[in-house]
Amino acid sequence: MNSELKVILDILVALVVWIIVPSIMIGLLALGDWASRRPEEGDLRTSARAGFWAGLVCFVIFFAATLKHAGVPTDWVRDLSIEPLAIVSGLVGGFALFQALARFVRTRAMGFLVLVISFCGTTSLYSYVFLRGYSETILSATLGVALGLLLHVVILPGVLRELFRSNPAAPSVEDREAEP
């Protein structure tokens, strides 16, 4: 192959590898964001947005799991690993936590749930930042909880509306519809 054709081929390969392929990948992300904003109905839109954010949480899990293979200098990036059991436990816990919040929003048990949430949030942040030995477990469990919460919203988006109503003491939409 002559040198002019090799130069053209090198330019074409660089164009495809570094411009076209990343553009397609960014386009997929933009399409996901656009599609999550398309539904006009409240619950459908809430579910779609939660699905988009759950996808980003899945990316963070993937990123953290593959970081050691990316050739990133470890002097400025933490050496992270992902613990699958902690992710699954967090996912189940996050889903159950959101269900408990929805169930107990109008009871005194809500105070206990808020206590647990605030304790877990601050403790996990402290452990992640300052306690090196636990950061992988904390990161994995926290990502699992976030994914569990978001999957709950994807599946049951109406619960989110109930939690953030301006007057939680008022009857819910379902209660009002059930009245004769």
Radius of gyration: 22 Å
Structural class: mainly alpha
How many angstroms does the end-to-end distance come to?
Answer: 83 Å
Q: Biggest sheet, open or closed, and with what strands and sense?
A: none
Helix content estimate: over 70%
Runs with pLDDT <50, length 5+?
A: none
Arithmetic mean pLDDT: 84
Strand content: under 5%
Report the total helices.
7
Please, how many domains? 2
Kindly describe this structure.
The structure is a single chain. This protein is mainly alpha-helical. It folds into two domains: 1-38; 46-169, no CATH class. The protein has seven helices and no strands. The protein has helices at residues 3-37, 42-66, 84-104, 109-130, 135-155, 157-163, 173-178. Helix 3 packs across helix 5 (135-155). The termini are far apart.
Provide tags for this entry.
flat; single chain; mainly alpha
Blueprint (SSEs and pairs):
Blueprint lengths: L2 H35 L4 H25 L17 H21 L4 H22 L4 H21 L1 H7 L9 H6 L2
Helix pairs in contact: 1-2, 2-5, 2-6, 3-5, 3-6, 4-5, 5-6
